[in-house]
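Entry 12.
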Amino acid sequence: MLEEPLFSVKKKNGRRKPVEVPEAFAPLADTHGHLTAFRRLDPSEAIVRAALVGVRLLIVPVDPAEDVSDVEEFLPWFERVRLEAASRLEALVLAGEAPRDACALANNTYFVAGVHPYGAKQFMEDASIRERLYALLEAPRCVGVGECGLDIGPWSELSLEEQVPAFREHLRIARERNLPVELHIRSGEGEFATAAHTKALEVLREEGVPAAGCDLHCFTSGPEVMAPFVELGCHVAFGGAATFGRSDEIRAAIAACPESLLLSETDSPYMAPVPLRGQECEPAMVTFNAQNIARVRAEAGLSTVCETYAALWRNACAFFGLDGAAGGELAGLAGDEFSSDEGIPPRTNKVDESERRTLKDNPSVELLEINPSLELLKIIRASSS
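Predicted 3D structure (tokens):
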């Protein structure tokens, strides 16, 4: 394994203090981690770093109004990012610098596509955005719709009324295509503290929750706000905000959420968790979020830490149709590298042969030699500084 820490924090004297990576008691899933908005990290490096801490499933939200102006350019870029990560991880595995199943994350990196509430008016007025969304949803690597929803937070320039039509349309698209949907619901303050959530419930009841499922991404409210969504069968994803000191309400929601509906995420590059708060968030940091979710539920006497870790993995695979029962194709993991293997499919140890051939045949991806270069290790280690 890498001798230097992946994570560190800056002390008052300017020196870096290593931060211990929590033990993963099951494979980790980041069900909502952006790769298109990093200021510092390279996307393929982010996948590598995530794999090194035990992440084995990454779902990347993609916005055809904000992130993708040309689908024919985006899809090769996404594949190139995955394949570069696969190449780096395979080299690290062969050098004994990474767990033997780390390469699976490159296989298990997918995306969802949808227009953020900020772009709701654009979506309804610009046919080209809708066309790009449809094209993204047809891609083999696309496993859902989102993020979409309602937002009347401090940065939103649209009223709820202006956002609702796009929200309804996304729900209909998800239902028609039998895809799960990731929701972005952010209410305001004061008298509007629950306005977006109340309206979202109204729309969900009118339109119906898509049969494939619905996920409240980045949930930052309390049990009372969460309860009616749970009654509709919605999953709830918790991220870095739940680790903050003043987030008792969010932690209460973690304890109140049914185990079968729990999900973990980062919303990277936003909201890095304690103890890394203030840094650029990345998918690898889901390890701290999963630890927090498991700890909260263990302290409440609801389940053991291992049971929660296993549930987070199982729920993520099932929600995106990537579990064996759902007929999905997940390069899954289990066994002796994790303390719990309940409900986890057999692992793959390295990039499969078809992936290997793709790597060799792709001139845009440089395969690393069996022993990873010192330069590569420096890149990975430097990313934590």
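Annotation: Residues 27-382 form a domain with the TIM Barrel fold (CATH 3.20.20.140). Residues 354 and 360 are 10 Å apart (CA to CA).
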